[in-house]
Amino acid sequence: MTIAKGLIFCGGPGVRLRPITYYFQKTMLPIGTRQKPLLEYVVRLLKFHGIKDVALLVNYKAEQILNYFDDGSRFNVKISYVHDDPKLKGTAGSLLNAYKHGVIDAEDTLLIYYGDILTNMNLKDLLRYHQKRRASATVALASGFTVRVGLADIDDNGNIRGFAEKPTLKKPVSIGILVFKGEVLKVLSELKMDRRGLDLMGNVIPRLIKAGKPVYGYLTDTFWYDVGSTEAYEKLDHKLVDDMFFRLFQ
Fold first, then answer.
1. Mean pLDDT within 198-207
2. Of 138, 157, 151, 164, whose CA–CA distance to 219 is shortest?
3. Tell me: the pLDDT tens digits for 86-132?
4. pLDDT in tens, 144-174
5. Whole-angstrom Cα distance, residue 204 to residue 137?
6. What's the pLDDT at 166?
7. Structure pTM?
8. Residue 37 domain flag
9. Rounded to the nearest 5°, which phi and psi values hold at 89?
């Protein structure tokens, strides 16, 4: 199996987690009864599945991350840091910035992880799936996602016929983990950056599909949880975290 380089997005200001993120970088929020940072679970998950070369794409409150993880030797991984460039906005902009700094190149297989996602997904299986299909990009997907708000059923005149409270979606959703062939970095360089920047899911994946590149979805039924809002963080079951991730700390 091809060894991938891990890239973790951990630079966002965590607006949906305010006021907590006035004091914490969102990926440094303590979770589980051990109160370890969320990002430690991510780093340990990558290492558990053989990904020991990790780049952290940082910006907001980056010092908290650097002071805790240093060079990664405490976690038996090699960690490098890339500070976001304000001229290269968005998730794809951060990736392009890492490319320009020589942290990744077009020969690499890249496992990209959004740092506010908690999962015990088998990353080795994801990488095998990607490699077997010779994909340019593979997006990890999960079904059974529950929308946290009520959805209105309205007719053409705007009359509300009813509400579905926190419905479960039938179609799979992206869970914030992707695999790219390094050659995709060249596509990033060709995309036009606007004032909002570039987004991997909103700009890059559609460009690859339009260009006829092989883009696959890897459907998983594994545990995953988006910790990226105050409501989600408050509802996180810390005992469940201990039970689900005990192998990472052995």
1. 89
2. 138
3. 888 889 889 989 999 999 988 899 999 999 999 999 999 999 999 99
4. 655 555 566 675 655 676 666 555 556 788 8
5. 10
6. 59
7. 0.88
8. yes
9. -85, 160
Residue type at 74?
A: R
Classify strands 160-164 and 30-31 as parallel, antiparallel or unpaired. Answer: unpaired
Give strand pairing partners of 224.
119
Under 8 Å between Cβ of 110 and 179 = yes
CB 181 within 8 A of CB 137: yes
Q: What DSSP character marks residue 73?
A: G
Give the H/E segment covering residue 37.
strand 36-37
Residue from 107, 76, 83, 47 nearest 247 by CA: 47
User: For the domain that residue 122 is a member of, what is the CATH number?
Assistant: 3.90.550.10
Q: Which amino acid is at 149?
A: V
**Based on the number of CB atoms within 10 Å of its own CB, is 139 exposed (0-12), middle (13-18) or buried (19 or more)?**
buried
Q: Respond yes or no on whether the N-terminal peptide bond of residue 19 is cis (omega within 30° of 0).
A: yes
Which range, of 39-48, 62-71, 218-227, averages the lowest pLDDT?
218-227
Structural domain count of the chain? 1
Q: Which domain holds residue 215?
A: 5-141+171-249
Would you say residue 83 lies in a domain?
yes
Task: Report the distance separating Cα 41 and Cα 241, nearest Å.
Answer: 10
193 burial via Cβ count (<10 Å: 0-12, 13-18, 19+): middle
Within 10 Å of residue 168's Cβ, how many Cβ atoms? 10
3 state DSSP class of 202:
helix
User: What distance in Å separates the CA atoms of residue 119 and residue 42, rounded to the nearest whole number?
Assistant: 8
Quickly tell me which residue has 């968005």 as its tokens.
90
Enumerate residues 6+ apart whose C-beta is below 8 A from 3: 50, 51, 53, 109
